[in-house]
Design brief:
By secondary structure, this protein is an alpha+beta fold. It is built from 13 helices and 27 strands. The two termini are about 30 Å apart. The structure holds flavin-adenine dinucleotide (FAD). Its cofactor is FAD.
């Protein structure tokens, strides 16, 4: 008998999302977080990609929008020094919201504790051991050291992950020498802002909005909020920095001087942060009863997408872990977590490292590469494809038993007419239960799913993308079929995912 079912180490976005998803799946997690209160250093400024669709399905997107203090900016994003303009799309292929990480964490913590998860702050995990039955965490809490046992432990403890080290999982990759300083500052006296976003200072003259490259690095200028300048400097070789140390306005000013050769007047800071990029991935996401998720499992060398990948790890892991705990998981289900999410992390690293190559060079050849890339992105299809890669919406997991185009992809949302009224695919997924959705009256397929413990729903839909869909709790289509769909394929899928 263990104290709890799952110990989650770390109350960042990954750990808190995992806690909530485990509760939805009927498991009891305990979150142990070493910080007595939420970290004050600003980190993420935005949340983007596939996870926004999942949050909508779980009924959380409205809470995200209520929590926004800034307007949602036009859909443009920097891809390694190249601007990708998505304003021409009615439905942007990459969605993003300017949600601060601290706000996201508060929202997720409320959601997880509201569902019954326990979060202990000021409790640091200092050691881990495991055997065939359980895993034991050594914890240093406010009242002294203690032990907790669980069936599984998940390290959601960030890029420096002590759990990864304790489990002996290698974390190969690169830490890049470039350091980025970011500041959002008010507009001070002595600085003119032109209508096109360029600024002008007495010492430097006019500095254009966008990127200015010098031998010492890059100065990027923009504005997300009226009256506030967004400034980022990137220096090629500025030594190691500690992400956890609060940044100062003087640091930003010093970096600007090193890059541009003179001072730029800066107003009051609204937000300051700095970071150094790494491209690393854990060799394994599972070692026995210990699993890794989020930054503990992967570090991406670009901004804006890491939380999407980390929270998506949690959504993928939770239902599989719960099935394992509840004794209903088919053989090998938990190992599909590594198979699917390691591949997803590796793919995220590809787009992220491509950004490093695109932004790095300062010579004419590098400039030519950026120009060619920028021209290619004028093409709608290229912009869509790149956006899907960055968002993680182009992922396709293996889907035994079905060769349908939707099988293995994230299920699209569409309206459904049922005997009880109008609903949608997203609403069916609110409770994170697996669903067989019959849109064409196939009772023999419904019977199979019912026997496997899957929720069964019949509905009608205009322009249905398939006749029957078997949807996993994480929103991925496990199996899809049209009129010629055979029961054997569905049987294979039910047995692979739900043991039916
Ligand atoms: C300046 C900056 C800007 C960024 N901007 C963006 C952005 O715009 N969009 C985006 O998607 N990403 C962004 N990121 C990346 C994003 O912050 C991370 O990807 C995210 O924090 C990872 O979440 P996580 O939950 O996996 O890990 P973390 O947020 O690092 O959380 C890990 C938690 O584990 C705790 N912990 C560690 N060791 C222990 C232990 N032994 N016992 C108990 N608790 C422990 C830590 O205290 C911490 O709270 C940015 C990062 C930085 C630094």
């Amino acid at each position: 008998m263990t104290d709890v079912e799952v110990i989650i180490v770390g109350a960042g976005p990954t750990g808190l999302m995992l806690a909530a998803e485990l509760r939805l799946a009927g498991a009891s997690p305990l979150v142990l977080e070493r910080r007595p209160e939420q970290g004050k250093t600003p980190k993420a400024h935005g949340l983007s990609g596939q996870i926004l669709d999942l949050l909508k399905y779980r009924g959380l997107l409205d809470r995200v929008h209520e929590a926004l203090t800034e307007h949602v900016p036009a859909h443009r994003f920097p891809f390694g020094g190249v601007h990708v303009d998505l304003t021409r799309f009615e439905e942007p292929p990459l969605k993003a919201v300017p949600l601060r990480q601290q706000t996201l964490e508060r929202l997720l913590e409320d959601h997880a504790t509201g569902l019954g998860a326990e979060v202990r702050r000021g409790h640091e995990v200092t050691g881990v051991s495991q055997d065939g039955e359980s895993v034991t965490a050594e914890v240093r809490g406010p009242d002294g050291p203690y032990q907790v046992t669980a069936r599984y432990l998940v390290g959601c403890d960030g890029g420096r992950s002590p759990i990864r080290a304790l489990a002996g999982i290698p974390f190969p990759g690169t830490t890049y020498p470039e350091v980025n300083w970011i500041g959002q500052v008010s507009i001070p006296e002595g600085l003119t802002v032109h209508d096109d976003g360029d600024i002008e200072t007495p010492e430097l003259g006019r500095i254009k909005a966008g990127f200015t490259r010098t031998d010492a690095g890059v100065f990027a200028l923009g504005s997300l909020t009226p009256g506030i300048l967004f400034i980022q400097t990137t220096e090629d070789d500025a030594g190691e920095v500690d992400d956890d140390m609060p940044m100062t306005l003087t640091e930003l000013g010093d970096s600007i001087r090193r890059v541009l050769g003179a001072d730029v007047p800066l107003g009051d800071p609204v937000r300051l942060s700095r970071y150094q990029f790494s491209a690393r991935q854990a060799e394994r996401y599972r070692e026995g009863r210990i699993l890794l998720a989020g930054d503990a499992a992967h570090l991406l060398p670009s901004t804006g997408t890491a939380i999407n990948v980390g929270m998506s790890d949690s959504v993928n892991l939770a239902w599989k872990l719960a099935a394992e705990l509840q004794g209903r998981a088919p053989e090998g289900l938990l190992d599909t977590y590594h198979a699917e999410r390691h591949a997803a992390g590796a793919r995220a690293l590809v787009q992220s490292q491509a950004q490093v190559a695109l932004r790095r060079g300062h010579d004419e050849a590098a400039e030519a590469l950026r120009t060619v890339f920028q021209e290619l992105l004028d093409d709608e299809q290229a912009a869509r494809r790149l956006s899907a890669h960055v968002a993680g919406t182009d992922l396709r997991y293996p889907a035994p038993g079905s060769g349908h185009a939707l099988a293995g992809t994230f299920v699209p949302d569409f309206a459904l007419e049922t005997d009880e009224g109008t609903t949608s695919v997203g609403e069916l997924l609110r409770s994170a239960r697996p669903v067989l959705l019959d849109l064409a009256g196939r009772p023999e397929l419904r019977d199979l799913a019912e026997g496997a413990g899957v929720d069964v729903r019949t509905a009608k839909a205009d322009d249905r993308p398939a006749d029957v869909l078997l949807i996993r709790p994480d929103g991925y289509v496990a199996w899809a079929g049209d009129t010629d769909a055979d029961a054997d394929g569905l049987r294979e899928a039910l047995s692979a995912w739900f043991g039916g």
